[in-house]
Amino acid sequence: MADNEQRQARVLVVDDERSMRELLAIVLHREGYEVLTAENGGTAIATLEREAVDLLICDIKMPDMNGVEVLRAAKRLDQDMVAIMVTAFASTQTAVEAMRLGACDYLSKPFDVDELKMKVREKLESRNLRQENVLLKRVLGARHEFSNIIGRSEPMLRVFKLIQTIARTTSTVLVTGESGTGKELVARAIHFNSLRRDRPFVALNCAALPDTLLESELFGHMRGSFTSADSNKKGLIEIAEHGTIFLDEIGEMSPSVQVKILRVLQERRFRRLGAVDEIEADIRIIAATNQDLSKMVADGKFREDLFYRINVIPIHLPPLRERQEDIPLLAEHFLAKYRTQMDKQITGISGEAMEVLDAYDWPGNIRELENVIEHAVALEQARVILPASLPDQVRCDTARVAAVAAAAALPEAGFDLEEHVQGIEREYLAQALQKAGGVQVKAAELLGMTFRSFRYYAKKYNLR
């Protein structure tokens, strides 16, 4: 019996002899394959245009068109098509032509049934291996170990423990957190500590593509299903079979695509765009968002049933400002990365520079910290990172907060420092926005901030 991947493989048998079609269909069904049949080349090509096929077994000599022509058409539709050619009239010329077009084997009638079964098994295994290697080259450029998520703060230790607990399950996971907090790193840690670690990990940013392209990327398509679909294409769900698919920014997914993802989660089946038959999907889905999905559900912007399907195991990543003790660890990690890349002899980060990093609010989180360290390594001429090499917005923001704190006198009874500082921040932001006539870019310049930082604080304090 073929293994689970091969049991799910679809084979198209093309032969003008009915008895031969029926024999091959019976043999391959017993091996666990799904079998389609065609009595001539024209029917075969029509089937290939309509259905997703993993392996083609085709007779060479047929009345309407020969097997080489069928193979040529099949390769135009799907370059990854695996083909075994069969004929009672073997010749060197047809064999050479078939192999040139990409046939992976050639059998002469009468053939040994066991030999055919062995060849089918080998060709499908080889095809699956090639597809997995393409994906593995994308994701194995760096080590994917749990320890690569850096942190020693209490919030991160709780995240680590949760990842270790749920990694070996098959449950769907929803990772939430602000942009730049490392949601994809968590998804990869879950996958590479799971029983699916040797299978593909496929990531897709749902906000990066319009609906039509997003559907095609996820589910694949058949030739002719839309204007530019000139060949059959596997989607990422199909490519991720037995592995994990990471859907980043799932809150940006349109209602029509949400319905289809819900069906995948409920039925574990899907259709390529333009296809008739369904394909089974043995995958684990990890979704991520920086939005409040429960609020989106209440506002009618996200499906409630899909929310409950993906929110089986929620993992929330704290922003960097809530895990300040991790800043030195992360900064040293990025320093090691970029001094190696730039071949610079920088041994560390000065105490003064580290104080600036600690005092900054990090609206862009870990991603912003990495950019800041890369910037500093590129500019620094000394043996350690000094404050002058840090970007202006980091030094200006921390100096502004320090000046406000120094100017305030501590009341005898004390007060809520965080609330007080936030009130002063909001007042300055509002004044700058008023003086700039509501133009945030100008307001940011008045406060010596980047537009990105100003936008973050304006949103935080609900300033219009």
Care to describe what's here?
- The protein is of the alpha/beta class.
- The protein folds into 4 domains: 4-127, 3-Layer(aba) Sandwich (Rossmann fold); 146-318, P-loop containing nucleotide triphosphate hydrolases (Rossmann fold), CATH 3.40.50; 322-391, Orthogonal Bundle (Helicase, Ruva Protein, domain 3), CATH 1.10.8.60; 408-464, Homeodomain-like (Arc Repressor Mutant, subunit A, Orthogonal Bundle).
- It contains 20 helices and 16 strands.
- The strands form 5 sheets. The protein has a 5-stranded parallel beta sheet with strand order 2-1-3-4-5, sandwiched between helices. Strands 7-10-13-6-14 form a 5-stranded parallel beta sheet.
- A hairpin with an 8-residue loop joins β11 (269-270) and β12 (279-280).
- α4 (67-77) packs parallel to α5 (92-101) and α18 crosses α19 (440-446).
* CATH-level-2 architecture of the largest domain: 3-Layer(aba) Sandwich
The biggest sheet, with number of strands, parallel, antiparallel or mixed sense and barrel status, is: 5 strands, parallel
- Low-pLDDT residue intervals, each spanning 5 or more residues: 1-7, 136-147
Helix content: 40-55%
- Spatial sequence of strands, sheet with the most strands: 2-1-3-4-5
Strand content: 5-15%
CATH homology superfamily of the largest domain: P-loop containing nucleotide triphosphate hydrolases
Oligomer: single chain
